[in-house]
Design goal:
The chain is an alpha/beta fold and 381 residues long. Helix content is 38%, strand content 15%. The mean pLDDT is 96.
Length: 381
């Protein structure tokens, strides 16, 4: 079964009781058991729910994985992976990551005795050099948030395998449609399903996908024990969004490439970060490990923060908001929004400048989007 067909049908057969073609919302907390120790596969909805099971199965399929585990948010999914570790363990992390991921490692798990090192995502050798005797995990995003760097998944997978440590990839920006890290050697894939997977700004969720049976069983235990699971309505909304994932991703990319090409020539724009542009430093790598370049791009404006404020105030179609990956176009100011948990000095060191703006390109008419951006950029000059 191919991607587009599986997104609609895999693990989502018609309801045997009624013939309903949409997976039912099993809005129940518990299940009647036939006898002590004898049930029909479900005992309590924190442990398992049929609507959630359908979602987990199709998400695993889309990533080319055997096992999927759904969570109440992307950060809950990330937390589940980190809980594979113990106090005293060490993690090597790419230096360009979502601010919430950084906050989780540095403000929560560091207090529990977890050690972290951040390295240049452009250098696989830097990852290998930073590995210690107590290193248990390599964690990356690709494309990265917010600078759209591309990390060599296959190369890092080889390093992790040789050192016998786990390798996790946050695949949120690319989506399962444009990139499948498990096929490139990753052990674990994480998504904020809030973003492209659901795609409509109406649900919060996350997923962990793996082919490693031990990893699956350990995270499954954590999922049940900690209980940060999505409710059945959240699962159903995500299932509905998945059915149009392939169509939406093609439109996101088409619009993003169109806009990136125009912004690269605009006098108010100092720099465009988009892996689909030939002058992107990892353009060739993106073409090699991805089947498309996605709908995210970032820009640096000439004129610093005052220009950013004028630009954002001039937008009419693009909305200033956290999040990304939905049908509507959004603009975000990383230094004060998604990456506000980093100190100014830390942000600057990682290349997140005061004039950086992140754009999540929606599926509206591309000319309307460009006109909106051009109108706002005139104000920023």
């Amino acid at each position: 079964m191919r991607f587009e067909t599986g997104a609609i049908h895999f693990g989502q057969s018609s309801d045997p009781a009624t013939g309903a073609i949409s997976v039912p919302v099993y809005q129940t907390s518990t299940y009647q058991q036939e006898a002590i120790g004898k049930h029909k596969g479900y005992e309590y909805s924190r442990t398992g729910n049929p609507t959630r099971a359908a979602l987990e199965n199709v998400l695993a399929f889309l990533e080319g994985g055997k096992y999927g585990l759904a969570f109440a948010s992307g950060l809950a999914a990330t937390t589940a992976v980190i809980n594979l570790l113990q106090s005293g363990d060490h993690v090597v992390i790419g230096d360009d990551v979502y601010g919430g991921t950084y906050r989780l490692f540095e403000k929560i798990f560091k207090r529990w005795g977890l050690e972290t090192s951040y390295v240049d995502v452009n250098s696989p050798a830097a990852f290998e050099k930073e590995i210690r005797k107590n290193t248990r995990l390599i964690w990356i995003e690709t494309p990265t948030n917010p600078l759209l760097k591309i990390v060599d998944i296959k190369c890092l997978a080889g390093i992790a395998r040789a050192k016998k440590i786990l390798f996790a990839v946050d695949n949120t920006f690319a989506s399962s449609y444009f990139q499948q890290p498990l096929k490139l050697g990753a052990d674990i894939v994480v998504h904020s399903t809030t973003k492209y997977i659901s795609g409509h700004s109406d649900v919060i969720g996350g997923v962990v996908v793996t082919n490693n049976a031990q990893v699956y069983h350990d995270i499954k235990f954590y999922q049940n024990a900690a209980g940060a699971v999505p409710g059945p309505w959240d699962c159903w909304l995500t299932l509905r969004g998945i059915k149009t994932l392939s169509i939406r991703m093609r439109e996101h990319e088409r619009n993003a490439l169109y806009i990136a090409r125009h912004l690269a020539k605009h006098s108010a724009v100092d720099k465009v970060f988009y892996p689909g542009l030939p002058d992107h430093p990892q353009h060739a790598l993106a073409k090699k490990q991805m089947t498309g370049f996605g709908g995210m791009l970032s820009i640096e404006l000439k004129g610093g923060l005052p220009a950013v404020e004028k630009f954002v105030s001039g937008l009419k179609v693009f909305m200033l908001a956290e999040s990304l990956g939905a049908v509507e176009s959004l603009v975000c100011y990383p230094p004060k929004m998604t990456h506000a948990s980093l100190l100014d000095e830390e942000r600057q060191k990682r290349g997140i400048k005061d004039n950086l703006v992140r754009l999540s390109i929606g599926i509206e008419d591309k000319k309307d989007l460009l006109e909106d951006l051009n109108h706002a950029l005139v104000k920023a000059l």
